[in-house]
Automatic annotation (TrEMBL):
<feature type="domain" description="CHK kinase-like">
    <location>
        <begin position="125"/>
        <end position="319"/>
    </location>
</feature>
<protein>
    <recommendedName>
        <fullName>CHK kinase-like domain-containing protein</fullName>
    </recommendedName>
</protein>
<dbReference type="InterPro" id="IPR011009">
    <property type="entry name" value="Kinase-like_dom_sf"/>
</dbReference>
<dbReference type="InterPro" id="IPR015897">
    <property type="entry name" value="CHK_kinase-like"/>
</dbReference>
<dbReference type="InterPro" id="IPR004119">
    <property type="entry name" value="EcKL"/>
</dbReference>
<dbReference type="Pfam" id="PF02958">
    <property type="entry name" value="EcKL"/>
</dbReference>
Length: 406
């Protein structure tokens, strides 16, 4: 965790000099040293309130400062150098091209530096702290209710629609910036490890169904495909006319809601470190399988919540947006993305025992797989099996690029 002295002496002066807090602004004081910080998987975070003077007036800013983690092994494992690059690129270069109403979906960006491995200690992203404005994480750690999901999908559609509009107005400029995004997870060096780790986790929800005789032909075929998870993901990432700038890690952990009488009235997204250009289903399917309960998925997703997303996309992007039918076909082809990621992440969310990252870093691949595929016990295995049943019922496991069920 960077010290408050380092922040005061090096980072904050650069941020103020950049004009982020006003032209010719001067630091008056750091009002609140609520800088105990919080260690994330891939970064360290400080919460600070500052007061600056611009001319004769003073203004306070409540900010979040995200730094690289100091552990070099962890930086390499999570590719945090590329994550910081992506987040700074999106905020500094890509988001200014977006309409103002879309910018309101994100916290205000003040300052960012990415040195791409040259000096990771200097990498930083400074954003608006939304907590003083009344935003907070949901009380629920995993599964959200209908109102939260509908609001999140509506705002996600607005975020995605901006890409469709940009492609029609300044396609080359947008494409050039998109091409600067770095791959943070599915890179060729990790192919064999990912095939084993993600493949074994994904099989966890399938094996009990096969043993009970449910959908043997479909599920055995799916398990065979899981020997090459890397190939599955590479196919899903192929760009087409529906492609948009995706959040890349669209889940409850990366959104904060504002409430009136305990009812969610607004939501903002954060953490764009794994942003990628690709199918909107990348974001939709991950959110679906990670943050919607079995009951909500089966009663409300296909006919209601999916339509909420599609209707909003069409309202904002007009004829540039795909039809509901075409979007559903895209979902059938690519929804397994969300399941593959949820099959290892959901057990972490549902397990009563918090994961110890330092211990994981020192485990062998076999040890990590063994712990991961049993995390949370039979209760979690059943949750994953229900996800697989939904994939089957929605036509996602019999659908390839040439043949889709209507």
């Amino acid at each position: 965790m960077p010290s408050i002295e380092f922040f005061k002496s090096k980072i904050l002066p650069q941020a103020i000099a950049s004009g982020s807090f006003g032209k010719n602004a001067e630091l008056v004081q750091i009002l609140e040293d609520s800088t105990k910080g919080q260690d994330q998987f891939a970064s360290s975070v400080l919460f600070v309130e500052i007061e600056v003077r611009v001319g004769a007036s003073k203004q306070k800013f409540s900010i979040i400062c995200k730094f690289q983690c100091e552990n070099a092994q962890m930086r390499e494992r999570f590719r945090t150098d590329f994550q910081f690059w992506n987040e700074v690129l999106v905020y500094q270069e890509i988001m200014p091209m977006f309409p103002t109403n879309v910018l309101n979906i994100l916290p205000e960006f003040y300052f960012g530096v990415s040195t791409l491995m040259e000096a990771p200690e200097n990498d930083v992203v400074i954003l608006e702290n939304l907590i003083p404005s009344g935003y907070r994480l949901t009380k629920e750690r995993a599964f959200l209710d209908y109102d939260h999901c509908a609001l999140a999908l509506r705002k996600l559609a607005e975020f995605h629609a901006a890409s469709l509009l940009l492609k029609s107005k300044c396609q080359l400029k947008f494409a050039n910036k998109i091409n600067e995004l770095k791959e943070t997870r599915w890179y060729i060096k990790a192919k064999e490890e990912h095939n084993r780790y993600f493949g074994e986790n994904a099989k966890r929800g399938i094996i009990p169904l096969v043993k009970s005789g449910k959908h043997p032909e479909i599920l055995n075929y799916f398990m065979e495909k899981l020997s090459n998870v890397f190939g599955i993901m590479t196919d899903i990432f192929q760009v087409n006319e529906m492609s948009v700038l995706c959040h890349g890690d669209f889940c409850r952990n990366n959104m904060v809601f504002k409430y009136e009488e305990d009812h969610p009235v607004d939501v903002k997204f954060f953490d764009l470190a794994t942003a990628r250009y690709g199918s909107p289903i990348i974001d939709i399917s991950f959110f679906l399988f990670l943050n919607m309960s079995l009951e909500l998925r089966r009663e409300h997703f296909k006919d209601e919540l999916f339509k909420v997303y599609s209707d909003t996309l069409q309202q904002v992007a007009g004829t540039l947006a795909p039809s509901l039918q075409d979007l559903w076909k895209e979902f059938q082809q690519k929804a397994i993305y969300g399941y593959i990621l949820a099959s290892f992440f959901l057990p972490i969310m549902l397990d009563d025992n918090p994961i110890k990252l330092d211990a994981v870093m020192n485990e062998s691949e076999d040890e990590r797989i063994k712990k991961s595929v049993t995390r949370g016990g039979e209760k979690v295995t059943k949750v994953l099996s229900e996800l697989v049943i939904d994939l089957v019922n929605w036509g996602c496991l019999t659908c390839d690029n040439l043949e889709c069920q209507e």
